[in-house]
Amino acid sequence: MLKAGRRWMAVAVTGVLLFTAPPARADDVRGGQEAVIETLALTQAWRSSTGAGVTVAVLDSGVDPGHRDLAGSVREGRDFTEGANPPGTPPSRLHGTYMASLIAGHGHGPGRKRGIIGVAPDADVLSVRVILEDEEPGFREFNSAERFENVVARGIRYAVDEGADVINMSISKELATREERAAVRYAISKGVVLVAAAGNDGDRQVEADFAPYSYPAAFPGVVSVGATDRRLRRASFSNWNASVLVAAPGVDIMGAGPGGEYWVGRGTSQATALVSGVAALIKARYPDMSPPLVARALAAGATDRPPGGYDTGTGFGVVNAARALTEASLLARHTETATGAEAQDPSRPVAGGPAGPVRVVVRDEQRVTVYAAIAAGAAAGALAALAVIFILVRRVRRAHISQEA
């Protein structure tokens, strides 16, 4: 019997298959992306970063490296689901290809104007298979056998060791394990940004003020992403709780599928992939920026902020790539903060878990001078006070000795 809390699921509600052959017009697919491109301000963002030099690990159901919109950008990594499907069963790779295209699709044809253009079109993808799709014959075995309990934790560590800069996890489950939490901490200690889906159970409210938490999105330090509808409001299916940091479009999202297909779907999966793409743009521009600071840039650069600046549905607002890059440029001016050396040292305990606060050091010469003078004065005063106390003690002792004599 399946245990719902242990089941890893792709959190996309996949919609309609559009094409199995090259589209009739150049804008059949690309035109379907216009709303996302505009909402994320990608045209402006691409002037300063296209994701070149960054590797995004896609922990999913596998990525089709032969799709014309991803060809040359995909490296196939380990399959941690091996043994769940019967021997010789080819992986579906639908969900993983879909997500990879939103992150790093580079289009095809003259000027790459056809097909899917991802948020970070010059980024590379590392495909790490950690889930099976519902229709695969080994799905039940995968989600019930103990040997597959910590495939995501192993996948995270593998991706980090293989040089990933960003890890996209458009997957979720209800319960977490100690191994997964440790893997998240390991990734952050190595400077790797983790982005995960908040989940598609938003209609299943469990308390008065939030919908279920899901993992790995709810782990401290992971960028938890909610989905918005066409009006940039929380999509009805998107989980709403205090783990949500930011949101991105998640309804009627065009993406690529295996075998040259194109799909339109909805879910927090798609929103997560878009945010991972923005994180890749930031890491390409500022490769040493720590995960907490990348998360801060994503949140600070968000638009369509909710009243009061934050809510549990869309977090700090809808991610905007151009504004996030601007915020990252401001944060990068402070070397100690941007690199997060203390947070990335696994031998140091970090307050608040893996995403604990990073000390901000701002060097202002005038303030340093004033503070140094104050410190010097305080030290001199302390020495003077000690001297007075010493003299008084000696006098008291002399008087006491005289009385005894």
From TrEMBL:
It holds the Pfam family Peptidase_S8. One of its GO terms (cellular component) is plasma membrane. Residues 1-26 form the signal peptide. It is a single-pass membrane protein. It is found in: Cell membrane. Keywords: Cell membrane, Hydrolase, Membrane, Protease, Serine protease, Signal, Transmembrane, Transmembrane helix. The active site is at D60, H95, S269. GO terms for biological process: proteolysis. Its main location: membrane. Residues 51-317 form the Peptidase S8/S53 domain. Residues 73-94, 336-356 are annotated as: Disordered. GO terms for molecular function: serine-type endopeptidase activity. The chain crosses the membrane at residues 370-393. Belongs to the peptidase S8 family. This is Type VII secretion-associated serine protease mycosin. It comes from Nonomuraea thailandensis. The lineage of its organism: Bacteria, Bacillati, Actinomycetota, Actinomycetes, Streptosporangiales.
